Amino acid sequence: MSRKRRGGGGGDEGGNWMDTYGDLVTLLMTFFVLLYSMSSLDQSKWELFVKSIYPGLEDKKGEAVQNLNINGKVDATSSSEDTIVMGSSTYPDTKIPGSTDINKLYITLAETMDKSGISDVSVTRGEDYTFVEFKDRAFFDGDSSVLTSQGKNALDVFCQVLAPEKDQISQVDIMGHTAEAVQTELNTPRGDRMLASMRAAEVCIYIQEKNVIEAQKLVSMEYGEFRPIADNSTEQGRAANRRVEILLIDKDAEARNPDEYMADVQSGNNADKTAVTDGNPDTDVQFGKSAVASTVNPS
What we know:
Helix content is 35%, strand content 17%. It has two domains: 17-86, no CATH class; 102-292, CATH 3.30.1330.60. The strands form two sheets. The chain has a seven-stranded mixed β-sheet with strand order 6-5-7-4-3-8-9, sandwiched between helices. A two-stranded parallel sheet has the order 1-2. It is an alpha+beta fold. The model is unreliable at 59-97 and 290-299 (pLDDT under 50).
């Protein structure tokens, strides 16, 4: 009668499969830990990380870039416009896109206005401010606070240049002025003040709706007919007096009231840093005293 042989372990080599199994489990655990760590990414920490590598880099919506392109491979859900390319030979400029030296803002603004065909704009750079004066013909008709199409076009260009510099500006004062309707008579106090206020408010609202700078930095002010820069005896003079002025105050500027800034502008001390546009894209912007002779208050 034959005896059945009992099964055995097959010798010492029979347990080697446990080593392979253990290695596989360890790799799987590492893989899932990696997936978990990726799925619980803290957005605020991610933005800080991106900004620490590329300070000032923002997407077109003004938000920190959140998608990375690793070695040219973009995730299908990522927007190519909001993606940084890592591992490539080309890196984005760390400077805010379109930004300039704040001291050169007046040049950029004047040249952009000129290339856009916008005339009668005077831009002055002071020690800690940029002053922009728009003549009546660019913004309003007589006795009206309704922005003209030409005025809206001028403000569109202004906003385009202002947007990249918003962090370098602490306040934007928008000042509305009127002119005497009749040379020998003052305007009625209510009509004059309301018209100047509405003109400043319309410009302020237009800029605010463009969302190019924080709303709390925008301040509208009215001066009525009492700050003329030309003689009211002529239509040309009255047109010059019906105007909107914008004062851009630098971020680190010493606190001063608007009259101090205006006195500095009208003193002529910054004539060499004043540009006046003629709206002709084929000619250069005029700089210096000859360009600003008509913008200084003759009184």
